[in-house]
Design goal:
It contains 14 helices and twelve strands. The protein is an alpha/beta fold. The strands form three sheets. Strands 1, 4, 5, 6, 9, 10, 11 and 12 form an eight-stranded parallel β-sheet that branches. Strands 2-3 form a two-stranded parallel ribbon.
């Protein structure tokens, strides 16, 4: 068992012990008295968990099931102070403290299950949330490139995976499980090369394997559309930027970086009207954004920006353009999720202070 797996098991057992013993509520109240940090939860997809042997896309993007998501939102509504991210920005701008137990719900990418499944639950329960969308995919309806790459590796009939861009050339595994593992390795390694090189590599594989994403709009990998987003916004949910093409912003030349940030802003304002400008950096690790990205984001008029660095925010004004978040994973049970919210520093994956700089590497989302 790896060190990380062992630590995960310990956290899960501790969380379940505190939950079953009825300790979470008093622990939460005690913690709220002395630490008023902002918790921001990060989700991607909410859907029934499919059979990995048959599901042809990235399982790691499934954050939870519809039933579990509804339970999670009920817990947040009953025990915490759910807030809009724009209200956090307003409090920071006014120099005001956030209320104890403030929690913000966020979603990255813009998959259409966010509209079909998540939106009705949030509307029913009256819980606010922010959805960060890659506007180019909303425009085109094309699948997200990283997810399509996983799809191709899972289904291609090619006998070898030849990726000179990454220094990889190896036989294509036979089993679906081994191909998923390989796809994860590819996703991690490719994030060290430039964003344009990533895009070119994926396009090359689409051409080489005759699996063009532009001609396929599978229901399992479909983005939302502007009509759906307008309906969600009219219902009080917030829409923010996740770039245009879901490219790693720090891996772009300055001109392309500015185009990604400014064009995504312009698309939001054009399609949805005036709104608070909120950003989530695609991929979100501290390999994916840096000081230059923050400068461009600020100059484009964005008021806050979220990273995918794990942790809570004791002083959100200090890192308003690199807010930490807590990723929600599909293997979290009810007890673990409740403990994660009540004791995020113990149950969650906190980033050490010396690693929270945007110049350091940190595990991230796709």
């Amino acid at each position: 068992m790896s060190h990380d797996a062992k630590n995960t098991g310990i956290r899960e057992r501790l969380g379940e012990l505190c939950y079953n013993a009825g300790l979470l509520s008093p622990l939460q109240k005690m913690r709220a008295w002395w630490q008023k940090d902002l918790r921001i939860l990060a989700y991607h997809r909410v859907m029934p968990v499919p059979d990995p042997e048959h599901y042809p896309f990235d399982m790691e993007l499934i954050s939870t099931t519809p039933e579990e998501f509804r339970e999670q939102m009920l817990l947040i509504r009953e025990r915490y102070r759910p807030m809009r991210l724009s209200d956090v920005a307003a409090a920071i701008n006014a120099g005001e403290n956030l209320p104890p137990d403030a929690v913000v719900i966020t979603f990255d990418d813009g998959y259409d299950d966010n509209y079909r499944i998540v939106y009705p639950i949030l509307k029913e329960l009256g819980v606010p949330a922010t959805f960060f969308i890659s506007t180019g995919h909303i425009d085109s309806g094309r699948p997200y490139a990283y997810d399509w790459l996983v799809h191709m590796i899972l289904l291609t009939g090619a006998t070898r995976l030849e990726l000179p861009e990454l220094g990889m050339d190896l036989p294509m595994p036979a089993s679906r499980e081994e191909r998923r593992t390989l796809a994860g390795r590819v996703l991690d390694r490719m994030k060290e090369i430039s964003a344009l090189a990533q895009a070119a590599m994926i396009q090359r594989l689409e051409d080489q394997w005759n699996m063009p994403s532009g001609h396929a709009y599978p229901a399992d990998c479909r983005p939302m559309n502007w009509h759906q987003l307008r309906e969600m916004r009219a219902a009080g949910l917030e829409i923010g930027s996740h770039g245009v093409n879901h490219w790693m912003l720090s891996k772009l030349p300055r001109e392309e970086l500015e185009r990604e940030v400014f064009d995504s802003r312009d698309a939001l304002l054009r399609e949805l009207g005036p709104m608070p400008l909120l950003m989530s950096y695609p991929v979100g690790s501290n390999r994916a954004f840096d000081g230059q990205v923050i400068d461009v984001t600020r100059r484009a008029g964005f008021d806050l920006a979220c990273s995918y660095i794990s942790g809570t925010n004791p002083h959100p004004a200090d890192n308003r353009y690199a807010l930490y978040r807590i990723a929600v994973e599909r293997y979290y049970g009810k007890a673990w999720f409740a403990a994660l919210l009540a004791m995020p520093g113990i149950i969650g994956y906190q980033t050490p202070a010396h690693l929270a700089s945007v110049d350091e590497a940190k595990p991230c989302s796709h």
